Amino acid sequence: MQFDYVIVGGGSAGCVLANRLTENPDVTVCLLEAGGSGDSILVRMPAAVVAMLPGKPAKINNWVFETVEQPGLNGRKGYQPRGKALGGSSAINAMLYVRGQREDYDEWANLGCEGWDWDSILPYFKKSENNEHGGNDMHGGSGPLQVSDQKESRPITQDFIEAAKQLQIRERKDFNTGDNEGVGYYQVTQFHDTAKNGERCSAAAAYLFPVMDRPNLTVITKAHAKGLTFDGKRATGVVYKENGKGKDIEVKAAREVLLCGGALKTPQLLQLSGVGDPGDLEKHGIEVRHNLPGVGKNLQDHMDFTLAYKSADTDNFGIGLLGGMKLMGHLNRWRKTGVSMAATCFAEGAAFLKTSPDLDRPDIQLHFTIALVDDHSRKLHYGYGFSCHVCKLRPESRGSVTLNSADPFAMPAIDPAFLADDRDLETMIKGAKLTREILEAPALAKYRKKEMFGTENAKTDADWEKHIRSRADTIYHPVGTCKMGTDDMAVVDPQLRVRGLEGLRVVDASIMPNLISGNTNAPTMMIAEKAADMIKAAS
Predict the structure, then answer these.
(1) Residue 223 and residue 156 share a domain
(2) Choosing from 139, 192, 367, 477, which is the catalytic residue?
(3) Residue numbers of the domain that contains 227
(4) Is 477 annotated in the active site?
(5) Domain of residue 95, CATH code
(6) Are residues 161 and 172 in the same domain?
(7) Residue 369 and residue 342 in one domain
(8) ∠ CA 100-106-109 to the nearest 5 degrees?
(9) How does pLDDT run along the chain (539 residues), one tens digit per residue?
């Protein structure tokens, strides 16, 4: 099989590229996705994420990765859920639509990534977006990705906002103007049209499913990529196995191979193909095809710490007879109208805050959640409650993604190096204290029954450090492992071409030189929108 372009990975970036490149009927595209179709009821119903995110008792649309032991987290292995289906992680995430700060992208440009400053990338955010409120200077009103206000947020979320305001934190109506500071509601990637109102608008639902009938687009699911093929320094195709079994199948690319596997899978595929740091490859007996030491380095992720309270309020998600009966009603109402608690994103309340007034922009992010959350919902508690996550937005720690073995079906060795830099711990302690102040404010008094996990006894920084090291983990935003730039450790140039090779680009969150100040799904789709224009211009 030969196509003009072969895309590896049908996630947030791959779906965008498949759509945009096949707008030209003379261009042929093959999209390879290791997972399934990504269109089941578990994906479409937002609240059903609770069946997919934990990765147990069954792995549903989820790679269910884990990290290597983390010295900064008392030697614990962290959990790394990643989407494995068309739509990628946008099929199993909380649907939060967040772009980050203006300064994040201006810093990219200052690092040598010309054309990636805020003013240059804003048009691509707008091109992607179909906002419920229509288009304006900051938002798009006609793009493929439907962005909505929450359908039926819980009253407790409004009281969380009031609690923050009682601490003199300003309310913000829009977190996507380049300045996020304040408290309010997240907007979500959720359908607002009549036909699919209240359903998750994954990247596949937005970009891919509407164009699946294009004759120049071939989508192959259950296709696990094993490696890239080359002619000298030119990438010529991809070898995959169907369902990880049977004979090898090769798909050839006449123009380019486009890697969209994400910050964990893309560096793994490059390394399996002999592209990376020789020291990382030779230990697994992999012949070095191209010396590119930055592959797999520069891993950055938002480490997250959760505070939680038991509550007598049953008007949220919980485990109990009354709540279960209510939930059945919510499911039926969502099926008919798209509006009910079944449409929730769970992390309904947003806050971007400064831990010091001297900072130029917020350095922590809060996700207020209408359920008790413990270990990524892998540990369940009877009853009801609420939680609040806090993460440092721009971590100093840098980790890596390397190979565990030369087996393409083995899990990569993921090392976020959480808390390797003491500055991250300092910010997390400040953030945890501030979060607890908000949760203890009068507006939430009627909901508080019992503080979970013993954090009520944290009196000193040393106490908070113990709590953070014992329970903190990712909030699912790994980036940076094939970073864009012009320095010796850059993997791709500002056109996203792999340095020193031909016919090969990386288009996903791994190209971010620095982690942005927020959730990474919308920025990943922006990256792919911009990349599509670059690819078209080069053809």
Answers:
(1) no
(2) 477
(3) 1-66+80-113+201-300+401-418+479-539
(4) yes
(5) 3.50.50.60
(6) yes
(7) yes
(8) 125
(9) 899 999 999 999 999 999 999 999 999 999 999 999 999 999 999 999 999 999 999 999 999 999 999 999 999 999 999 999 999 999 999 999 999 999 999 999 999 999 999 999 999 999 999 999 999 999 999 999 999 999 999 999 999 999 999 999 999 999 999 999 999 999 999 999 999 999 999 999 999 999 999 999 999 999 999 999 999 999 999 999 998 778 999 999 999 999 999 999 999 999 999 999 999 999 999 999 999 999 999 999 999 999 999 999 888 888 877 667 777 888 889 999 999 999 999 999 999 999 999 999 999 999 999 999 999 999 989 999 999 999 999 999 999 999 999 999 999 999 999 999 999 999 999 999 999 999 999 999 999 999 999 999 999 999 999 999 999 999 999 999 999 999 999 999 999 999 999 999 999 999 999 999 999 999 999 999 999 999 999 98
Number of structural domains the chain divides into: 2
Q: Which of 433, 452, 471 is the last residue of a domain?
A: 471
On whether both 388 and 410 belong to a single domain, the answer is: no
- The whole-angstrom separation of Cα 376 and Cα 184 is 23
Three-state SS for 234? strand
- Is 125 within a domain? no
Q: Is residue 226 part of a domain?
A: yes
DSSP 3-state percent helix, strand, coil across the chain (nearest 5): 30, 25, 45
| Domain match, 230 and 338 both | no
- Dist. CA 389–CA 53, nearest whole Å: 16
DSSP state string for 394-444: S----EEEE-S-S-TTSPPEEE--TT-SHHHHHHHHHHHHHHHHHHTSGGG
For residue 128, being part of any structural domain is answered with no
User: What are the angstrom distances between the C-alpha of 159 and each of 89, 185, 207, 310, 441?
Assistant: 30, 11, 36, 16, 10
The pTM of the whole model exceeds 0.70: yes
